[in-house]
Each structure stands twice: as C-alpha cells, then as structure tokens.
Amino acid sequence: MSETQGTPADEPRDGGQAGRADGAEGADRAEGAAGVAGSPAAPRRRRRRLVLIGAGVLLFLLAAAAAVGVGRTAASHRPEAAVAAYLEALQQGDAERAFTLDGTEVGDDDVLLTDEAYAAASDRVSDFDVAPAVVDGESATVEATVQQGGEAGPRWQQSFALVSDGRDLLVFPRWELQPVELGTLTVQVGAPSSATVSVAGAELPRGDSATVELRALPGSYDVELGGGGELWGAPAATGTASGAGSRGTPAVLVAELTEAGEASARAAVDGWVSGCVGSPDPRPDGCSFALLNGDGGYELSNQKWTLETAPTYDVGAWDGTGWDVTSVTEGAASYSADARDASGATGTFGSVSPVPVRVAGVVTDVTPEGAAFEAGPFL
Fold first, then answer.
1. Backbone angles phi, psi at 98, to 5 degrees
2. What are the CB-based long-range contacts (under 8 Å, 24+) for 150-154?
3. Nearest-CA neighbor of 134 among 126, 122, 142?
4. DSSP element (H, E) containing 197
C-alpha cells in the first residue's frame, strides 16, 4: 500500500512543484506584461501624437501666415497704397517711376520732367500723410498732405484720383492712379530776347514772353541766365514748384550790364544824339529837339544843328523792355541855315536861342556787334 499510494510527506513536494510552476507562470505573465509595455507599438503611438501636434502647429502657422499675406495683399490693393507708391517715388527723386505709376505723358517742352532735372532739384518731397480713400464704385479719391523740403519747407494738400482696373486673384481690386496734376515752376526773365534760360543744363523754351511757366515736380530749381557773354548777365536764381493748386516761388532773373556792356550802351545813346544833331531837318525824326515853326516857309540850304552842350544821362536797370536810359541834365543845340523866301530874298534862318536836348529811352540789347537803343517817349 505504501508503495502504491505514497506517503503524505510526498504531497508537499508535489505541491511545491506546482507552486513553483504557478510562480513561474506568474513570472511569465509579468514578463509578458512587461514585454507588451516595452513593445514597438508604444513609440509608434507617441510618434503619431507628435506628428499630429506638429501638423497642428504647422497648420496654425500656415493659417497665420496666410492671414498676414491676405492682409498685406488687401492693404497693397487699397487706393492709398497706389498714392503712397507715387509719393515715395518723388521722395526718392525717381521721376520716371512716378510717371509710370500715374501715366503722365511727358512732352518735348517738359524739360523739367526728367530724372536728370529732378536729381538737380532740392527741397523735394520729404514726408507725406495719406488719408483714407473715399471709394465710390469704380472710382476713388485720396487726399494727401505733402511736406516739402523738411519741416521748414512748405506743406500742402493734394487730391489724387483713381479708377478700378480689374481684380487680382479674383478678389483684390486693382486701383490705377490717374495722371496727377503737376505744379508749375515760374521763371520771370528781365533780359534781351536773345537771352537763354536753363535749369540743370536743360534750356527752357522761352519764346517772346517775359514769364516762363513749366510743369514741374515738387522741388526747388536753380535757374541760370545765359547769352550775355561779357556784356551782361544775372546771378542764378532759385524757383520753387509745389503741388497743383499751391503757389510756388518764382525764379527772377534780371540782366545787369557789365562795365563793358554799359560802355556799349552809352556808345549807342551817344550815336543817337549824334545822329539827331547831324540831321539837316529843323524837326529831325525820332529826336528830342526841333524848331517849333519848322522851316518857316523858307527854302533852306546849308542847314545844320550844332550841339552846344551835350546832355548827360543814366543807364539804369532793366525795366521790362530794356535798360532804362533817363536824362540827368539837358543838353542844348542850335539850328542855322541859309534861307530864300518866295520873292527871292535871301538871309539867315535859325533858332533864336538854343533848344533843349534831352535823352530818354531803353537799350533793348547789347551784343558784341553793338547795342540797340530805342529813344523816347519825350514829353
């Protein structure tokens, strides 16, 4: 019996083996659980979360950038942006870009509307403030305050007109600046018709007018007078042009005779006096003296004027038509001739006393060939 049933002492050994088996199985399950926790699936889940977070951040940044881009695009398509671009071109002295932006057509007489002429100008646009646009359908108006030549310079208002010219990306309106009304540079010239007027080396079209007006961008321009050589000239003058509707400052050029020029002018005046005295006519044409009764009804011969005292005079400043010549002291001349009356009687005919000789008029030009003097009027 003991061989077939075993002893009670054997059971704990069996139980101990079973306990070990159960313990091993528990350990295996624990290892299995630990193996599951440390398996490749967990890092994949973490990476997936990181990818999702990164994608979200990227989408947020892209959305923010898109919003900024849309905002900037919208701002750049406002009418104010077109006006600001035009004024910035003027601020930088880029005339050609400004005219490209507003479509201004430059003619042959627009000698100041070039980059070269504008580069030589001072006191250009230094600052500006663009007000919100007033949009009316397909058109818009923008008012701007423009500062010229720094804080001490003029400040003026200008209105800009724009029209809609389609859309970009089917959303953003495209505004086209209309040709801007320009200011005017005024040059007042007191000089002979042969004088030339130039700005930055460009000769201005003058014609016969004493006033030259040219379209100009905002700025101050140095203007020079030429043509007088060593005989006459004028210091350079500065004129200022502002915006349309704003009065600039004219450049005034008044020719002054040099010492050589005045000598030439006096030679012309003295020549005129000599010409009058040399006339046999008792009433010489275009002269300041005459016999009141003319020839007295006699037949005259051997007529002559004799200058008893030469007049003195001043050659003054340009008065609009020439250098003004005014009498300082009167001269005197006497007239004499042989006379025959209707009966054949002969005798001497002449002035009872010397007649006054006055000088008045203008010297209209002085050239290397001589001066031109226009006498009169005589009161």
1. -60, -40
2. 150/123, 150/126, 153/123, 153/126, 154/240, 154/242, 154/246
3. 142
4. strand 196-199
- Is residue 309 within 8 Å of residue 331, measured between CB atoms? yes
Structure tokens at 79: 């009418």
Instruction: State both tokens at 364.
Output: 């209209």
Query: C-alpha angle 363/364/365, rounded to 5°?
Result: 100
Length of the chain: 379
Q: Which domains does the chain have, with CATH numbers?
A: 79-177 (3.10.450.50), 183-256 (2.60.40), 259-375 (no CATH)
List per-block mean pLDDT (blocks of 10 residues) for the chain, which spans 379 residues. 38 41 44 47 68 60 43 60 97 96 94 94 96 95 95 90 74 86 95 92 84 94 96 96 86 98 98 97 94 85 96 97 97 95 90 95 97 91
CA distance 140 to 175: 8
Structure tokens at 65: 């950038």
Q: With beta carbons less than 8 A apart as the criterion, state whether 318 and 255 touch.
A: yes
pLDDT of residue 241: 94
Contact of 63 with 124, CB cutoff 8 Å: no
CB within 8 Å of 82: residues ≥ 6 apart: 101, 160, 162, 175, 176, 177
How many whole angstroms separate alpha carbon 318 and alpha carbon 302?
41
Q: Give the count of beta carbons closer than 10 Å to the beta carbon of residue 271.
A: 13
Location of structure tokens 């500065």 = 238
Is there a contact between 185 and 197 (Cβ–Cβ < 8 Å)?
no
Q: Tell which residue, 146, 114, 131, has the closest CA to residue 248.
A: 146
